[in-house]
Write a structure and sequence with these properties.
Elements (H helix, E strand, L loop, with lengths): L7 H12 L4 H19 L3 E7 L7 E5 L7 H10 L3 H4 L4 E6 L5 H8 L5 E6 L9 E6 L8 H31 L9 E5 L5 E3 L17 H15 L5 E9 L5 E10 L5 E6 L10 H4 L4 H11 L4 H8 L3 H15 L4 H20 L2
Antiparallel strand pairs: 1-2, 1-5, 3-4, 4-5, 6-7, 6-10, 8-9, 9-10
Helix pairs in contact: 1-6, 2-6, 9-11, 9-12, 10-11
Length: 355
């Protein structure tokens, strides 16, 4: 039997086991067991799984394997700081990075940990972000045959896709469990008419409707979300808006909302200390309202197809909007657009933490 070979029945059984995990801890244990098994079969000194389902930092989660020889968490962090590493992990399939061929900064990360080679298993194109699995070897591994590489890619893609789907479900409960920590999240709730029962900030202008707490440009979108959730047209929603602090200022926030047992909307406010895909004012002012919606979704990690589904547009229409956005902002790719929107947020977080 070839390395990583497994019957379709066993593969389906593993997928069912991952999907049925009742809680995040059980799920992570299943994933860790599978990573350990793959690591042993590959004779790797360490392996870790990295999940990214969007461009924002808060849409990134690492589930690490374990190793007695390597600090896997520090190793993964150092890889991410290496210039050009992200470009190595976006393609589907298995690629090999050898110590003697590595760029100087990547060479330093590998050699400092006694690692001679890496296998990088990128997620399928259908997966969001740049999710991947990394195997590290103290000695140079034997070369994978094409069937072995395919088998490993199937295993890894299954782990990544199931992880992203399960973590998306667990994310709500995890955020709810942190509501006592102000810098992480805040709770809010409305009655069926959208009037706030609970809100973590002072009420602006005495109007207790959720939409009234936002700047005028965002009120219609919030009202539509409240109507949609309370009517049962959608079960949950994520919205990036600006909160009206007072008559002269505002703050960016992300609302995660769902229908409450009492018929209104309940949710979590993620404060602006967390990175979100928010258009800087100089970018927003140059785009139409529809172009701003497309740009926000692209910057938040959505693909063209997903943007179309979210905005009820065809993929060709989304692409036409992107062409106009590129022209107005002087960028030539989605990657450049994402950097233009997200980099100022990341720099502000870095500056704040080092101030």
């Amino acid at each position: 039997m070839r390395m990583f070979d497994i019957s379709l029945i066993d593969l389906a059984s593993m997928a069912d086991e991952l999907s049925a995990a009742p809680c995040p801890d059980t799920f992570r244990r299943h994933v860790a067991d599978e990573l350990d098994r793959l690591s042993a079969e590959a004779e790797a000194c360490t392996v870790h799984l990295v999940l990214r389902w969007g461009a924002r930092l808060d849409q990134q989660l690492m589930i690490h394997g374990s190793s007695t020889d390597v600090d896997v968490s520090a190793f993964a962090d150092d890889l991410d700081r290496t210039e050009g590493w992200a470009a190595r992990v976006v393609a589907a399939g298995v690629s090999t990075v050898l110590l003697e061929d590595a760029a100087p900064d990547l060479h330093a990360v590998m050699s400092s940990r006694g690692i001679s080679a890496l296998w990088v298993v990128g997620g399928a194109r259908s997966l969001p972000g740049s999710s991947h699995v990394v195997f590290a070897f103290a000695a140079r591994p034997r070369e994978l045959t094409s069937p072995e590489a395919t088998a490993l890619a199937i295993h890894s893609t299954l782990l990544m896709s199931r992880s992203i789907s399960r973590l998306a479900l667990f994310e709500w409960d995890e955020l709810m469990s942190h509501n006592e920590t102000p810098e992480r999240s805040f709770l809010f709730e409305t009655d069926p008419q959208g009037v706030l029962i609970r809100w973590p900030y002072p009420i602006v202008e005495g109007d207790r409707r959720l939409a009234a707490q936002m700047v005028p440009g965002d009120r219609r979108a919030v009202a539509e979300v409240v109507d949609s959730v309370t009517a049962g047209a959608t079960t949950s929603y994520e919205l990036i808006v600006r909160r009206a602090v007072d008559a002269m200022s505002s703050q960016t926030m992300r609302l995660l909302a769902r229908r409450s047992p009492r018929g209104g909307v309940e949710g979590i406010v993620l404060p602006p200390s967390l990175p979100v895909a928010v258009l800087p004012d100089d970018v927003s002012s140059r785009l139409t309202e529809r172009e701003r919606e497309v740009a926000r979704l692209i910057a938040a990690g959505y693909r063209v197809r997903q943007v179309g589904e979210r905005l009820y547009l065809s993929q060709n229409t989304v692409r036409n909007h992107l062409k106009n956005i590129f022209s107005k902002l002087g960028v030539s790719s989605q990657a450049a657009l994402i950097a233009l929107i997200n980099e100022p947020v990341r720099h502000s977080r870095w500056d704040a933490s080092n101030g």
